[in-house]
């Protein structure tokens, strides 16, 4: 039971007075309560000009279920899906119109787990300038023209041509005094100030995107520009450890890729696309040290006009087989020698003619994690990349570096991620060192016949690299050209058309587009 309260000793009159005071206070408090806020007014996209731009961005593919947005739910978000939501959130595009309404186009499609450092999309977005900029320029020109005309009139008035001998000589100094009482005209004042700086697309989007997707630059482009069809080349990089590999043999095999070849045996045939031609042109194929130079990391640099589905990962898988010396570099020629009516000659003098391989032998493609779309190349006259808003000065990195700049610096954010990755790599290296005194490494059998390799004893299990520390293990290696072959692409396409793809194929007839940039 609670103890006595202060009201126990109050008289009846005192209690009534107290209640009246409380009632008055409650009424005043209710009177000052703010009314409920109305729902925000819908954003009117039609009231803002639009312009077409290109966005250049990077993403960590390991965090996403691929680049392309999907119509059905996916276990992991897609890069396009997240980027689209960021554009909607910043009111740069109208969600009612969707991707089609803003003319969304991408340069190169990437599969689940594949990253990009120079991916590009083109689309129409809200602008702070647009037609407004042209109107402002016209107003300035009109103002300049009026001012020049006034100046000509003033010059003619200040020095009269017919001044007589009786003139005072002060006409030139005081002739304008008669104009002082005239009201100002509209020509004497500049028009209202119009925006001269474009929206900071890079900063706007990076402020709402996750750290695994970063907008690096944007560019104003012409209405007819296409991120896909205006691209001159795509440059892919595949990073790998040289441990157990013959780099010279890999370079020999890679050099045979340059030129136009049929890559049906170095890709995954996707029957939904119903491709009949698998010819693609490779501009360059090199095995280089990773930059910055690191003895434990090399990279395949592959540049081409367009790529087939999983083409780079299939090429890298064959290069791994060549690097282990389980296959000869000439196997690359054989895999591209698909037409019996037009056989390819050997790439080097003294080599036998490569055999005809009409369909793909069974082999495992390389892992997606080390693959990155490094660059999408365009005509510099069509695309001029910039990191900040149009009309603003470029950030040179000089001068006073404020706290706000440090917190929002894209370079600083990416550098921090890089430093963390270096620390993680150092930790993993020390974990390996800590285990070495108690656990011996396995015998090094690859590359076969290398002075530092041990002979392959009967029953030895070979660990063939497939990228990113993954291996395909076998105790009896079967040469690539002796393996079971898959069906011809024509057979795969027809089986799909007659099966589950019949309805989709019929709907797509007459609307097919050339396939490109699909890794």
From TrEMBL:
<keyword id="KW-0413">Isomerase</keyword>
<dbReference type="GO" id="GO:0005634">
    <property type="term" value="C:nucleus"/>
</dbReference>
<dbReference type="GO" id="GO:1990481">
    <property type="term" value="P:mRNA pseudouridine synthesis"/>
</dbReference>
<keyword id="KW-0819">tRNA processing</keyword>
<dbReference type="GO" id="GO:0009982">
    <property type="term" value="F:pseudouridine synthase activity"/>
</dbReference>
<dbReference type="GO" id="GO:0031119">
    <property type="term" value="P:tRNA pseudouridine synthesis"/>
</dbReference>
<comment type="similarity">
    <text>Belongs to the tRNA pseudouridine synthase TruA family.</text>
</comment>
<feature type="region of interest" description="Disordered">
    <location>
        <begin position="174"/>
        <end position="193"/>
    </location>
</feature>
<dbReference type="Pfam" id="PF01416">
    <property type="entry name" value="PseudoU_synth_1"/>
</dbReference>
<feature type="region of interest" description="Disordered">
    <location>
        <begin position="139"/>
        <end position="169"/>
    </location>
</feature>
<dbReference type="InterPro" id="IPR020095">
    <property type="entry name" value="PsdUridine_synth_TruA_C"/>
</dbReference>
<dbReference type="GO" id="GO:0005737">
    <property type="term" value="C:cytoplasm"/>
</dbReference>
<feature type="domain" description="Pseudouridine synthase I TruA alpha/beta">
    <location>
        <begin position="253"/>
        <end position="379"/>
    </location>
</feature>
<dbReference type="InterPro" id="IPR001406">
    <property type="entry name" value="PsdUridine_synth_TruA"/>
</dbReference>
<dbReference type="InterPro" id="IPR020103">
    <property type="entry name" value="PsdUridine_synth_cat_dom_sf"/>
</dbReference>
<dbReference type="GO" id="GO:0003723">
    <property type="term" value="F:RNA binding"/>
</dbReference>
<dbReference type="InterPro" id="IPR020094">
    <property type="entry name" value="TruA/RsuA/RluB/E/F_N"/>
</dbReference>
<protein>
    <recommendedName>
        <fullName>Pseudouridine synthase I TruA alpha/beta domain-containing protein</fullName>
    </recommendedName>
</protein>
<dbReference type="InterPro" id="IPR020097">
    <property type="entry name" value="PsdUridine_synth_TruA_a/b_dom"/>
</dbReference>
<feature type="compositionally biased region" description="Polar residues">
    <location>
        <begin position="141"/>
        <end position="160"/>
    </location>
</feature>
């Amino acid at each position: 039971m609670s103890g006595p309260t202060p009201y126990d000793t109050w008289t009846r009159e005192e209690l009534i007075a107290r209640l009246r005071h409380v009632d008055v206070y409650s009424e005043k408090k209710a009177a000052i309560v703010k009314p409920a806020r109305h729902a925000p007014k819908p954003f009117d996209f039609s009231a803002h000009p639009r312009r077409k731009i290109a966005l250049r961005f990077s993403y960590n593919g390991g965090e996403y279920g691929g680049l392309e947005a999907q119509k059905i739910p996916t276990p992991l978000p897609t890069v396009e899906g997240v980027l689209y939501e960021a554009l909607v959130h910043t009111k740069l595009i109208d969600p009612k119109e969707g991707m089609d309404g803003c003319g969304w186009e991408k340069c190169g499609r990437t599969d689940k787990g594949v990253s990009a450092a120079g991916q590009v999309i083109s689309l129409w977005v809200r602008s702070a300038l647009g037609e407004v900029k042209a109107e402002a320029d016209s107003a300035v020109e009109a103002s300049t023209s009026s001012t020049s005309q006034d100046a000509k009139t003033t010059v003619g008035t200040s020095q009269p041509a017919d001044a007589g001998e009786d003139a005072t000589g002060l006409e030139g100094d005081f002739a304008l005094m008669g104009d002082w009482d005239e009201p100002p005209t509209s020509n004497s004042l500049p028009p209202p100030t119009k925006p001269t700086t474009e929206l900071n697309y890079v900063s706007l989007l990076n402020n709402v995107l996750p750290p695994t997707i970063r907008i690096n630059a944007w560019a104003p482009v012409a209405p007819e520009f296409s991120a896909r069809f205006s691209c001159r080349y795509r440059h892919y990089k595949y990073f790998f450890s040289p441990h157990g590999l013959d780099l010279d043999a890999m370079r020999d095999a890679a050099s045979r890729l340059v030129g136009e070849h049929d890559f049906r045996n170095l890709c995954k045939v996707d029957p939904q696309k119903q491709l009949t031609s698998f010819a693609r042109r490779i501009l360059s194929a090199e095995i280089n040290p990773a930059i910055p130079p690191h003895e434990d990391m090399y990279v395949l640099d592959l540049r081409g006009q367009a790529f087939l589905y999983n083409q780079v990962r299939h090429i890298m898988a064959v290069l791994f087989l060549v690097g282990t010396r389980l296959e000869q570099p000439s196997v690359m020629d054989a895999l591209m020698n698909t037409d019996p009516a037009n056989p390819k000659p050997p790439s080097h003098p003294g080599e036998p003619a490569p055999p005809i391989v009409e369909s793909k032998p069974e082999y495992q493609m390389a892992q997606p994690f080390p693959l990155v779309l490094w660059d999408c190349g365009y005509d510099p006259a069509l695309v001029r990349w910039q990191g900040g808003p149009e009309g603003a000065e470029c950030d040179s990195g000089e001068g006073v570096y404020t706290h706000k700049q440090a917190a929002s610096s894209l370079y600083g954010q990416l550098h921090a991620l890089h430093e963390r990755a270096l620390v993680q790599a150092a930790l993993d290296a020390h974990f390996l060192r800590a285990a070495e005194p108690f656990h011996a490494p396995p015998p090094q059998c690859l590359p076969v016949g290398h002075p530092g390799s041990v002979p392959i004893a009967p029953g030895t299990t070979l660990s063939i690299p497939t990228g990113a520390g993954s291996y395909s293990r076998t105790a009896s290696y079967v040469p690539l050209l002796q393996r079971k072959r898959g069906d011809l692409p024509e057979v795969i396409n027809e089986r799909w058309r007659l099966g589950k793809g019949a309805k989709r194929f019929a709907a797509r007839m007459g609307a097919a587009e050339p396939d490109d940039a699909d890794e």
